[in-house]
Amino acid sequence: MSDHELRVSKIRNGTVIDHVTGGQALNVLAILGIDGSSGEEVSVGMNVPSDRLGRKDIVKVEGRELSQDEVDVLSLIAPDATINIVSDYEVVDKRRLDRPEFVEGVLSCPNRNCITTDDEPVDSKFEVLNDEVRCVYCETIIRDRLPDHIDT
Amino acid sequence: MSDHELRVSKIRNGTVIDHVTGGQALNVLAILGIDGSSGEEVSVGMNVPSDRLGRKDIVKVEGRELSQDEVDVLSLIAPDATINIVSDYEVVDKRRLDRPEFVEGVLSCPNRNCITTDDEPVDSKFEVLNDEVRCVYCETIIRDRLPDHIDT
To answer: Record-annotated residues binding Zn(2+) (chains A, B) (predicted)?
Structure first.
């Protein structure tokens, strides 16, 4: 693929998150805590035509190597994502997405009375089940529209 | 500038919002009502090095021409932005940002008792003053951190 055809250009050093489910790029940024305010160089392509997925999103983060923990949380909203670590324009490592057992501090509990949604200094923590996640504090289950509960 | 140096590639038809204040791209998307779910092809570059601004953001929206009203609202968070309408890879029109007199349905009033923040079907409406905006219903003034009040 020529540079002209690339939706977002190559990065020198950092992480390329490709084959993200179409329309989920902003949720990927939210999970990674990226809103632009800290000056990170980030490129995003949303709903790019893809042979494999029909439509896909791409997120490229310059100068930051995602940890395995961060990558695993992404599996909740973008199970087909591929993660490449890039150094000097070359792919030097690939991360495999493993579905985590628990997710901490990323989702907010929809139960208003949950201790994690009050003013207490308690981070949210959910157990990841097959098709749902369950709050370990109040046992509220989130089944549908998981991205709506990402803590932005 | 070669294609290789472009952070996000050229679009065929649509709108290019360039010279956005660094870190404001996600707020631009929020103002335009773009979250990826409607399938719009969008490219975003955040905190790209810029001679003129130090750091800037770029947003390219494929297949959509922004109206003058939409453009004017952007002036609240990105006063230096330039707007180019693109057709078949060529710039065919430029929009000038005019600071609007009123902003409707974009910001949410921080006053919890305001009629626009209750369950009533009343859209928010703010009058744009010099360095602040004022709710036309409850007269609450937002002075600082305007982006925090963008309705996402």
So the answer is: 109, 114, 135, 138
Are B46 and A43 a contacting pair at CB < 8 A?
A: yes
Three-class SS state of A27: helix
Q: What is the pTM of this model?
A: 0.85
Q: How is chain B split into domains, by residue range?
A: 14-96, 102-149
Q: Just give the CATH number of A14-96.
A: 3.30.70.140
β-partners of residue A67 are none
CA distance linking residue B38 with residue B35, whole number of Å:
8
Query: With an 8 Å Cβ cutoff, is B134 touching chain A?
Result: no
With a threshold of 0.85, tell me whether the complex ipTM lies above it: no
Partners of A6 on chain B (C-beta within 8 Å) are 9
| Nearest CA-CA partner of B127 in B147, B109, B111 | B109
Q: Is B1 part of the contact surface with chain A (CB cutoff 8 Å)?
A: no
Q: What's the whole-number mean pLDDT along residues A44-50?
A: 93
Tell me which fold the domain B102-149 belongs to: SH3 type barrels. (2.30.30)
